[in-house]
Amino acid sequence: MQLISKYKWEIIISVFLALAYFTLRLIYLNRLPIFTDEAIYLRWAQIALHDASWRFISLTDGKQPMYVWVAMVFMKFIKDPLIAGRLVSVATGFFTMIGLWFLSFELFKNKRIAFLTSTLYVFYPFAQVLDRMALYDSMVGAFAVWAFYLSVVLVKREKLQDAYALGIIIGGGVLTKSSNFFSIYLLPFTALLFNFKKPFPKRFVRWIFLAGFASAIGYGMYNVLRLSPLYEMIAIKNATFVYPFSEWVQHPFVYLTSNVSGLSSWLIQYLTPSYILLILISLITLKNYFREKLLLITYFVLPFVALALFGNLLYPRFIFFMTLFLLPLTAVGLEEVIKFFETKIEFHSVRLVLPYILTLIFIIYPAFISFQFAYNPLNAKIADRDSNQYINGWAAGWGVKESVSFFEDQARSQKIYVATEGTFGLMPESMEMYLLSDKNITVKGYWPVDIFPKEVMAIAKKMPTYFIFYQPQHRTLPPDSPLKLVFKVQQGNTNDYYRVYQVTTK
User: Fold this and answer.
1) Based on the domain organization, do 373 and 451 belong to the same domain?
2) What is the DSSP letter of 52?
3) What ranges in 62-110 are assigned the alpha helix state H?
4) For FRET with 255, which of 42, 357, 387, 429 sits at 20 to 30 Å CA-CA?
5) Residue 199: helix, strand or coil by DSSP?
6) How many other C-beta atoms lie within 10 A of the C-beta of residue 145?
7) How far apart are CA 362 and CA 66, in angstroms?
């Protein structure tokens, strides 16, 4: 009881933040339609759950398996695979929020800055988007933040147990996504925080050894993937999004301007004017906590520049983990604003509520965007590229829920056949994910479908057969298609539709 009394306000604020976080992340969790990549990852997890020989299934597409492994566990206890997968991101986002608190406190030794950082994360629109989707990136962010925190702890304390912990976190990160290798590449820059008081040479060499030891653990864990014959697929997949050096040197700066423009646009859209202003305020007072701020800027700028230089096919979610290192700077800026007004106000009662009022002013717009994304995603003010992918385009699975309900109803008393446009992606994965447990339903993807598949026509003579079309290039059906429209669902705010047809035999 004495301990609770001593930390009463810290406990109250922590409980409030946890409630705010889970409320904002969990409300209307199923309102956003399943996204193409979500369908792929969750189908992998479903297969891996029921067949141990496929635990490295993500390597078939060059993806590391950590997210799939965790989603697989959640699926054991949660019936709806989409909710299970999205809850993985909700959980990892919560660990990110906690990690940011520890990181900020370790850097600035100020509890108010630490709590402000966590608060800003709760209402950060970028985090709201990715913490609510069954994608890798929320987990990537969690590992990146905790690796950064433990890197700071290691350089300050130089203890073996910290190197072990850091190595395990780095290993988990690189088993999630290749971008987590930045936790190793950026580790030498934490020397900015090294205490060079005499005698430092022996201690510095010890830190170098421990940092190398932590990196070796991370690489050792990553090398587990070499057990799979599909290991080389990772490099092939990475080359889709990032130019290999051998190719990049042939045109080193051709795409730099356009990449910087696109990445900066997404960064501004997600940080919002509120957070950008606070970051600028923190940089104006750069002399305060100079080394700590410089380290945070380094952890953001270097990955950002690397992506701008080498990026081939880019999406906003690629910069999410690096933007997390800007949030402690945002909190420092807010702390500077609060301190400025505290010195101007004489009334004690006003000073007590001032931090809450100023925090509310700066988070109200980001909080509005975050709530809007949950409640009304069609009109959410998120990055244009994400809106086009997750909400207003064929990659967003508008119509999937309706299809699942319809097909389950049709298969109650008879066998049916469901054909889909596409053999990998939203279709047939989303249908397989929900329907293959029903013995009365067979699902199969077809591509290309410029000519109507003869196999489908033959099956239609034996049982009720349906065909799903959802991609814009097939607004006009293949010629002589024996199809009768059953229903259609508008794909966000576009003029395209997800369509379910019944195959006729006449």
Assistant:
1) no
2) G
3) 66-75, 81-108
4) 387
5) coil
6) 28
7) 35
Count other Cβ atoms within 10 Å, centred on residue 51: 10
Which CATH number covers residue 470? 3.40.190
Q: Could you tell me if 59 and 228 are in contact, meaning their C-beta atoms sit under 8 angstroms apart? A: yes
How many distinct structural domains can be found in the chain? 2
- Regarding whether 416 and 365 lie in a shared domain, the answer is no
pLDDT tens figures, 194-224: 988 867 788 899 999 999 999 999 999 999 9
Residue 162 tokens, joined: 């910290």
Same domain, yes or no: 412 and 327? no
The last residue of a domain, from among 350, 379, 408: 379
Each residue's pLDDT tens digit, 325-334: 999 999 999 9
Average pLDDT over residues 254-273: 93
Domain that includes residue 150, residue range = 2-379
Strand-strand pairing, 465-469 and 416-421: parallel
Interatomic CA distance for residues 231 and 421, integer angstroms: 29
288 confidence band (pLDDT: 50, 70, 90):
confident
Q: What is the pTM of this model?
A: 0.95
Query: Residue 440, SS3?
Result: coil
What is the average pLDDT score of the chain? 93
How distant is the alpha carbon of residue 467 from its chain centre? 32
CA angle 38, 125, 302 (to 5 degrees): 85
Same domain assignment for residues 410 and 336 = no
CA distances to 263, 275, 491 from 380, in Å: 19, 18, 15
Question: How much is the average pLDDT of 366-388?
Answer: 94
CA distance linking residue 399 with residue 81, whole number of Å: 17
Long-range contacts from 107-110, C-beta under 8 angstroms, 24+ separation: 107/152, 107/289, 107/292, 107/295, 107/296, 107/328, 108/289, 108/292, 108/328, 108/332, 110/335
pLDDT above 70 coverage of the chain, percent: 98
Residue 154 lies in a domain: yes
Say whether both 420 and 272 belong to one domain.
Answer: no
